[in-house]
Amino acid sequence: MDEQKAIFLDRDGVINEVLNERVKFVNEPEQLFILDGVATAIKKFNDARYKVFVVTNQGGIGLGYMTTEQLERIHEQMKKDLAKEGARIDDIAFCPHKPYEGCPCRKPSPKMLLDLAMKHQIDLKRSYMVGDRAPDIEAGQRAGTKTVHIGARETNIMLADHYFSNLRTFSDWLLPENESSKGQ
Q1: Per the CB 3.0–4.6 Å rule, which of 41, 127, 163, 167 could disulfide with 6?
Q2: What does the alpha-carbon distance between residue 181 and residue 176 come to, in Å, rounded to a whole number?
Q3: Is 172 a catalytic residue?
Q4: Is 81 a catalytic residue?
């Protein structure tokens, strides 16, 4: 069986709103607001036979701001919200440890990506890591994926392979309507 390609997505700032007037951190399902165009983009990846994974640092668990059970409820809500528009997340990996705790799974470590790739037989060279911060880009680079930075370009961010304003513009570039094989 051939290895599959995947889109690895950071969560906060790529899939959902964070650090704005409406929400600072997502510690409860009702604080989760999916960004415009995200469900459409993920459905496009699904339709093009990319596996779609979420890889997210969730240090709020280690810091005591939320529990693993709360995080699971947030992720269930995220999957339900995306499914309403026909989009599917294939698997989710998260690091519950505090920032600077030195755990082996927290991005910029590539461990979450590598574990998902092994579990789902993913060809990392044909895959993309999409994030809005330098640790996301570094994790993708260290795992051997192509990297995509979403949002405003930070002056101190590691060089990503591609830059887009949001997930929808990336999906439109990767999978244009009239050229469905570009990302193959």
Answers
A1: 127
A2: 9
A3: no
A4: no
